[in-house]
Amino acid sequence: MKRLATMCVFGVAVAATGIASAETAGQAAKDQPAAEGSYPDGFLRPGFGARVGGYGFRQADGEGVWDNCRMNGVGVFGTLDLNRHVFGEVGLDFYSAAPETNEQGLDRVSTHGTLGIGLRMLPDFIVSPYAELGGGVELTRIEALQDGETVMSHSGAYPVGYIGFGLEINATENLKLGGAFR
User: Do the strands 106-120 and 127-146 form a parallel or antiparallel pair, or are they unpaired?
Assistant: First the structure.
């Protein structure tokens, strides 16, 4: 619950910063002509959002399905559109072991901090596909339990990378809905 409260506070801070910087940048850029492919007011356009997701692992030999140590999570992210096609993203995601993983005797908590860059294919269409590439760090803690007792505990920081593909729906000029697989 404490993590969810932290995530909400972070999301509000990102939103307030984005709104304040958009108003300041928009006012400063009104007297300058817009460059080709940029937004009408000629400034970098911030955005923010939230996401839900999960992931799992496979056996080391590549056999089986992606269901070992299933993790469910939530996250917040901020974006900065450099122009209509190119955008940057910073994200903070929190994952914890799914109930079936806990029943197997594992408890795991992970936090991912990521940076990425993306390319929108058709920004002027209602539905626009995009590709994204990024990386960051995973801070994780894992415990193995047997009969309610901790038999192994490990914490560490690990590099993460991703390639993602998604769709954005341009609902209005200032509202995008979307989904991604990465």
Answer: antiparallel
Tell me the C-alpha distance between 94 and 116, whole Å. Answer: 17
The closest alpha carbon to 74, from 99, 91, 56, belongs to 91
Q: Give the CA distances from residue 15 to residues 10, 18, 49, 77, 118, in Å, rounded to whole numbers and listed in that order.
A: 9, 5, 9, 10, 20
What are the tens digits of pLDDT across the range 56-89?
Answer: 766 666 666 656 677 889 999 999 999 989 999 9
| Rounded-to-integer distance, Cα 21 and Cα 31, Å | 17
Report how far residue 59's alpha carbon sits from residue 40's, in angstroms, rounded to the nearest whole number.
Answer: 51
How many C-beta atoms surround the C-beta of residue 173 within 10 A?
6
Q: What is the pTM of this model?
A: 0.69
Sequence-ordered list of residues with C-beta below 8 angstroms from that of 177, at least 6 positions apart, any chain: 168, 169, 171
